């Protein structure tokens, strides 16, 4: 371990300079360049493959995970430094996955040593791609309303039911899912957090078409799926809700902050083009764009402020629901204004403006609706009474 | 009575699922449906009885458009039966009979940029011999790819008074049309004019009087489009209210959550206020057409905003299901956006209102 | 009675021409010109007195009330014609009062013959000025939360308690008030609608100063007030809530529609002045003003449409709550925009802009808050469920 | 720590009731309170130690202003300790010591019309002999009636470069002051200059460099005013939340109504987002003052809007009681409106942000 953060920074900068393939430097982050990994992953290029392998060997795919599982064993400050240097070098993320974002943290907190040893190295190496199975048709924001059930058949669980909004389920190797293991218990009890291989007979997926077009979302069906009991459940039996709640926070930060999201990085001005040209002297669009810009800049500062608070250990707690709420509503406004400013040309699918506009409408639904976020703020942060 | 009849017919023959079927089949509208509408007199709603029309007036046309908006019924109604019929009627054209029969399909080619601005028309109508040569491009032409004839505004001279409106055959040499991949799955096209010939007979109204000739058609179209958007708002709102009353979450009907109730109530208020402006626009067009622009722009501005609110609340209150293509909410959202831009957006019409009110 | 409405119109036009004192013609409607009547009323001019007396003699102070009580006995259409002719002639209202707007309708529907004979002629003649005592401190929107109590003392009621928001209580002769006559009954029962003379010993008033300055509102205190039983209660004992509910509709229409309100009648453009001068090139104020103008005009049309519906007998029912909600919120927006457009000059009390701006904030509270209106719409009009 | 100390002091010595007492007594602020503030180093918060200041920087000044906003504490802090101190410090004035002591009270006389527009200054500074004669009117001068000295911007030549900033004694011949009847019960005055004499020694910065000389003061004032409005929003919001938790209606605590909860939660979000912009503006002023205008305007624009929402929700959620003068909500509402206009309104600052972002 280097003695000081500055030594670490120098060391990592040098490592990046030596190991980052030139063609990856500064490439835009989008569906065509992201590396998701997994059994069936086809690398976009040799460079992508090399970069993943080198980063994995150096512990950079999961910098703060223990070294034993292929992580980097870094401190919070070291990870921050690493990210800053990666950004400075224009280096792409070597690996993205729900395993890194969601399952890993859950296993590190709730998993047995055997579970950690089995799954974490596969995640850090990008060998297994996970997807998440929480939502069910008819449940909506009420995630605890789990109808997919797992019956105890002695040596295995027999799983039947359906999940919805499982991103990339058609491309994933395994799924971590909430299933009901006790049908008589109260709603939030009786749920377990279960790991299931997507290749198990009886598991099928169907992509969901959104109003904005094709999407990574799927429906996932479980039809008499036999799951071996050994290591199937993470955390306590029937206490899967605790695990899920812990992870929801992660998901929220991801969507609200856009850290895992795909953004073009274009400014509003770039998206609108010459305001005088497109909107003429229209004070309505102009005023909306001005207001949006003011709010967006201030929201960006708020993201930073909250990140600093979180990193300084001050803790932001439930107030992070505010970031999810405000950030997603802001993006909806942004997309509306772009559509409005670009007028009729934006109404052709081919212009590429309509799909992100329509897709943005889901921002305030997925990962906890705006209504749920406002409930959380009013009850947990403002401590308004329920009666 | 007209409303009830229209609603009954459209619920049965043109529900949102019909629009979906059109889209999946790649067709902008169902010609059979349009024939039936024409037989009911809808194609001639604004055409005098002397030309075989039903001559029911703009308020009636608005009621039909509202009901069409409610189910998103796709048809050439606005382009042919409202816009073209009104412009050609004012000019005393002899093609009204064909429109009333539903036989002649018209498109209005006016916009050249991303925003509606007829007075900035740059398309050339170069005098040549006894006629003109049209050269330039028109965009966002509703029903442009499927129309038989096109009303096109072009520059035959200098300044505002240099604009002339032509009524030409869509098959004329030099005119090429390219359908857009429109988000609302209807027919919006780009039209390229490469020295298209036009004669004096093709002129609607007076040479140099294009804006005046266009005005009755534009006003009628804006009012009917406002009515369509008003109906669309009521349509998605009814769907949403139904969902709020059925759907259960956290062991409660979601319509019992007060935060949603207040938003639904607010939306109701907006819809009611817009409906008044829409009804008023139709009546003023019927009784004082020359003073109707304020009323028409008021209706279009209100309807645009209300539809936007209605579809956004509709999708959000439906949650994830509202985002899926299997569900209807997206169709309302897309149509509302197209309707917002067509024939002048919110700012365009609000500016007309503000100017009339000396703001 | 004239044969047709047109005969009636001609007749009334002639009557107005002959009887309206010239100096009253076209005078603005404001606190200095309104005629409230009452025991202590000081007429602003001989003309005001003459006009009231002539109108009363002709039945025009309460055109639709029975002739026996000093009303005009007119039909709905005749009243409409009368109002149109009065407006055409620039004639002021001969008499305004809560007796006409509120108590009269209540007595006509719920009163005994004795009560009608005692009170209605005094109201139509402008001899008694009434005020209304509903709200209590701490009750707010929950009008049924009546703590003022009337104890049965045999030949009289003994009233103790406090009312708030009693407009012009310091100038009124009598008050119609909600009092609790049964303390054991459920909240909405046990309330009676009581008539009390303000000169009774124990009744005192104190004016309320608002954030916008002086106001006609008062607090009214009842300290061991003895109210003779004879004719004191309107409607059934303990069913005063029915009477109050009936009257609330009247009050709402008054405030939402502004029919009884004092309006300057100035357009937004007149209030703002030259937009280019005051707001310069500011697209924000300009856009807000444009949007307000659009919404105001459409709301005006909606008021007309609802009035037509009501007059045609179609009935608007609870949807009238929408008018109250929308109209008052609109006025708040209007006042905000005027303040904003007029900038720093509006911040001096002397300019006369700040008081109406601040006063407008009460519009969405008095006569049923916006929140109560939205509740009514969602429950009664949209029929959204309560569970 | 600074925040806690300030809050403790202000809660005890300058609660809203103190502002009410000032108003009822017809005084704009309490000189005794200001002396105590000065003794704590607040008057010298932006003045170097060499002039007896505490030199704590703009973020610290913002924290003090936020806390003052929370209780609506009335004092000459912004005019003297922030605006004048910043402008005079940049110009190397020798009057900083008096400001740091709290002895010299300053006012900034810049506006001439209903909107803040320093670059449109028309007031005359006519060269005469070795000096100038000032002639014209300044309006909306904060602390203008009570100040000892006035910073005044006037036109000494042609164009933008013709503006000069003067620092003159408020008692100078020809200068008359008339206090406004301001809705927030503070000192806003109209100043009439009738050929007031000014010498070269009175010039702050360079002749013709008035806008540059004023800039540090304006930016600092705008940032601190934004902080005050941010604190005001938090203040009225805290009062409102307390009411929502106490008040019962329809047999329920009104804070349990979901519609109010969601609005309170939304307000919380707006307040948090504004607080970020305010903190950022203070930090940028401390570290990169020459590049601070975007950050400052962002803070002022946000704080203006948030305060407006906070006071409107505050009054509405309190219901009738919130409308009475006996209650504090009205004081917050009036101060928010005055703060919205002072030193540039929402549109003024949003336009600066938009221009910086090429919108």
Q: List the strand order in the largest sheet of chain B.
A: 1-4-5-8
Placed side by side, the strands forming the largest sheet of chain A appear as: 1-4-5-8
> Helical proportion of chain B?
40-55%
Number of helices of chain A: 12
The CATH architecture designation of the largest domain in chain B is Up-down Bundle
CATH architecture classification of the largest domain in chain A: Up-down Bundle
Low-confidence stretches of chain A: 254-264
Q: Could you state the CATH homologous superfamily of the largest domain in chain A?
A: Butyryl-CoA Dehydrogenase, subunit A, domain 3
Would you list the SSEs of chain B in sequence order as H and E?
HHHHHHEEEEEEEEHEEHHHHH
**What share of residues are in beta strands of chain B?**
15-25%
Biggest interface found: A-B, 45 and 47 residues
CATH-defined fold name of the largest domain in chain B: Butyryl-CoA Dehydrogenase, subunit A, domain 3
Class by alpha and beta content of chain A: alpha+beta
Total domain count of chain B: 3
Silhouette of chain B:
globular
Mean pLDDT of chain B: 96
Distance between the termini of chain A: 55 Å
CATH superfamily of the largest domain in chain B: Butyryl-CoA Dehydrogenase, subunit A, domain 3
H/E topology pattern of chain A: HHHHHEEEEEEEEHHHHHHH
Gross morphology of chain A is globular
Domain Acyl-CoA oxidase/dehydrogenase middle (chains A, C): 131-225
GO cellular component, one term (chains A, C): plasma membrane
Protein name (chains A, C): Acyl-CoA dehydrogenase
Domain Acyl-CoA dehydrogenase/oxidase C-terminal (chains A, C): 238-382
């Amino acid at each position: 371990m280097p003695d000081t953060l500055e030594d670490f920074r120098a060391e990592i900068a040098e490592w990046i300079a030596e190991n980052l393939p030139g063609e990856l430097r500064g490439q835009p982050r989008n569906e065509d360049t992201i590396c998701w990994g997994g059994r069936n992953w086809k690398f976009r290029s040799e460079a992508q493959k090399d970069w993943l392998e080198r980063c994995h060997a150096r512990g950079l795919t999961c910098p703060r995970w223990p070294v034993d599982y292929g992580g980097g064993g870094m401190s919070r400050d070291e990870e921050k430094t690493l990210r800053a240097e990666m950004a400075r070098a224009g280096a792409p993320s070597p690996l993205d996955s729900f395993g890194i974002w969601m399952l890993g943290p859950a296993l590190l907190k709730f998993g047995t040593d055997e579970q950690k040893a089995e799954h974490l190295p596969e995640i850090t190496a990008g060998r297994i791609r996970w997807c998440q199975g929480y939502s069910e048709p008819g449940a909506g924001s009420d995630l605890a309303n789990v109808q997919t059930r797992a019956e105890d058949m002695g040596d295995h669980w027999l799983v039947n039911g359906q999940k919805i909004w499982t991103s990339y389920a058609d491309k994933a190797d395994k799924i971590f899912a909430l299933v009901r293991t006790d049908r008589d218990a109260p709603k939030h009890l009786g749920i377990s957090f279960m790991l299931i291989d997507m290749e198990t007979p009886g598991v099928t997926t169907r992509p969901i078409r959104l109003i904005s077009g094709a999407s990574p979302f799927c429906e996932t069906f479980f039809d008499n799926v036999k799951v071996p009991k050994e290591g199937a459940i993470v955390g306590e039996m029937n206490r899967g809700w605790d695990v899920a709640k812990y992870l929801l926070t992660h998901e929220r930060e991801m969507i609200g902050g856009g850290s895992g999201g795909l953004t073009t990085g274009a400014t509003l001005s770039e998206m609108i083009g010459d305001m005088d040209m497109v909107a003429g002297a229209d004070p309505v669009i102009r005023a909306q764009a001005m207001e949006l810009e003011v709010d967006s800049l201030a929201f960006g500062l708020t993201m930073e402020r909250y990140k600093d608070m979180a990193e300084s250990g001050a803790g932001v707690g439930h107030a992070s629901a505010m970031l999810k709420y405000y950030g997603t509503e802001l993006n909806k406004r942004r997309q509306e204004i772009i559509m409005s400013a670009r007028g009729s040309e934006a109404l052709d699918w081919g212009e590429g403006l309509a799909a992100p506009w329509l897709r943005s409408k889901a921002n305030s639904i997925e990962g906890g609706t705006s209504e749920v976020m406002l409930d959380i703020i009013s009850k947990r942060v403002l401590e308004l009474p329920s009666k | 009575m007209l409303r009830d009849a229209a609603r009954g017919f459209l619920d049965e023959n043109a529900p949102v699922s019909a629009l979906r079927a059109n889209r999946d089949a790649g067709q902008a509208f169902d010609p059979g449906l349009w024939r039936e509408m024409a037989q009911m007199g809808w194609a001639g709603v604004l055409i005098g009885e002397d030309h075989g029309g039903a001559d029911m007036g703009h308020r009636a046309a608005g009621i039909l458009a509202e009901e069409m908006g409610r189910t998103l019924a796709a048809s050439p109604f606005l382009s042919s039966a409202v816009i073209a019929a009104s412009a050609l009627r004012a000019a005393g054209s002899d093609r009204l009979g064909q429109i009333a029969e539903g036989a002649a399909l018209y498109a209005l080619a006016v916009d050249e940029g991303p925003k509606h601005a007829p007075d900035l028309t740059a398309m050339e109508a170069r005098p040549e011999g006894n006629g003109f040569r049209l050269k330039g491009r028109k965009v966002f032409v509703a029903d442009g790819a499927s129309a038989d004839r096109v009303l096109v505004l072009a520059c035959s001279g200098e300044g505002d008074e240099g604009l002339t409106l032509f009524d030409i055959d869509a098959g004329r040499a030099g005119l090429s049309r390219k359908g857009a991949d429109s988000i609302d799955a209807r027919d919006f096209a780009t039209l390229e004019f490469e020295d298209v010939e036009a004669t004096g007979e093709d002129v609607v109204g007076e040479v140099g009087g294009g804006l005046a000739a266009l005005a009755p058609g534009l006003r009628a179209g804006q009012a009917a489009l406002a009515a369509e958007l008003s109906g669309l708002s009521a349509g998605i709102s009814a769907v949403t209210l139904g969902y709020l009353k059925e759907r259960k979450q956290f062991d409660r009907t979601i319509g019992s959550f007060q935060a949603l109730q207040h938003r639904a109530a607010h939306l109701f208020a907006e819809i009611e206020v817009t409906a008044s402006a829409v009804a008023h626009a139709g009546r003023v067009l019927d009784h004082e057409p020359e003073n109707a622009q304020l009323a028409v722009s008021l209706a279009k501005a209100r309807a645009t905003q209300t539809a936007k609110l209605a579809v956004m609340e509709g999708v959000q209150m439906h949650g994830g299901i509202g985002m899926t293509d299997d569900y209807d909410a997206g169709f309302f959202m897309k149509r509302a956006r197209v309707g917002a831009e067509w024939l002048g957006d919110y700012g365009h019409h609000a500016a007309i209102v503000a100017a009339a009110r000396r703001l």
